[in-house]
Design goal:
- This protein is of the alpha+beta class.
- 22% of the residues lie in helices and 41% in strands.
- It has one domain.
- It contains 5 helices and 9 strands, in the order βααββββαββββαα.
- The protein has a 9-stranded antiparallel β-sheet with strand order 2-3-4-5-1-6-9-8-7.
- It is elongated, with a radius of gyration of 21 Å.
């Protein structure tokens, strides 16, 4: 189903994420050389840190040790609108606010993925996903959240509807496609004029694809369509009016 383009789309970040297997023994420092291919368009590099823990179950009282490990790098575009991740477990390309459209993000991800493949030499792609983080600022007084959302926290009619905070996390499964939807009120962002609601949608599918496979991009188109279905079927016309 086709949906309208929203000139003022509430997307604060849209992400194409690809999980991949790299050759055994690949050093994280190898991924740093992606910056040579990115050139001056992506001048800033940051480490991606993960925490790894170890528990000694043989001790009388179990002890744990944690360490910080570099798992890859972020590369930021000069205009701070795109972020490319090169990780030991895969790749991601993000478009930050203001979001333009899917075609531009997809085309940018294609170029940067091909450069990642040159550097990392992945043996296969194992998972593809698209994630969009939306920030929907509702004008106060909100009254009833049902006026803006078809999918939201359900409150008994006899209870106050003026929410101070809310958090909802749900998952869907259709065939091999999974979707996770998280909705929350940004309590710190609430002002006398607005109530910001975060609508975070991630769609994903397991795959077994060669790095150069055209099928990858067909899978991403399908995930994008599922993401759009979730977004447009979860909001009301009153919400869409906010973005025109």
């Amino acid at each position: 189903m086709g949906y309208p383009h929203l000139p003022g789309a509430p997307i604060t970040e849209a992400i194409v994420d690809l999980r991949a297997d790299l050759p055994a023994g690949t050093a994280v420092e190898r991924l740093s050389s992606l910056q040579d291919l990115l050139g001056p368009l992506y001048p800033e590099k940051k480490n991606i840190i993960v925490w790894r823990g170890q528990i000694d179950t043989g001790a009388a009282q179990a002890l744990s040790a944690e360490s910080r490990v570099v798992n890859g790098y972020q590369f930021w575009s000069a205009d701070k609108l795109y972020v490319v991740q090169a990780r030991l477990d895969g790749f991601a390309c993000s478009r930050l606010k203001p979001y333009q459209d899917w075609v531009r993000l997809r085309d940018e991800a294609k170029v940067r993925w091909s450069q990642y493949v040159q550097i990392a030499n992945p043996t296969r792609i194992t998972r593809a996903s698209i994630r969009t983080v939306n920030r929907i600022e509702l004008p106060r007084p909100v009254g009833n959240f049902d006026d803006y959302f078809k999918t939201f926290v359900r409150i008994a009619d006899d209870l106050p509807q003026a929410l101070k905070g809310a958090f909802m996390h749900i998952g869907f499964q259709s065939g091999k496609t999974s979707a996770i939807v998280t909705m929350a009120i940004d309590e710190e962002g609430v002002t006398p004029e607005k109530v910001p609601v975060i609508l975070d949608i991630e769609t994903s599918t397991p795959v077994q694809l060669q790095p150069e496979s055209d099928e990858l991009w067909s899978e991403l188109e399908t995930l994008r369509n599922v993401k759009n279905d979730i977004f447009f079927k979860s909001v009301t016309p009153a919400t869409l009016e906010l973005f025109k």
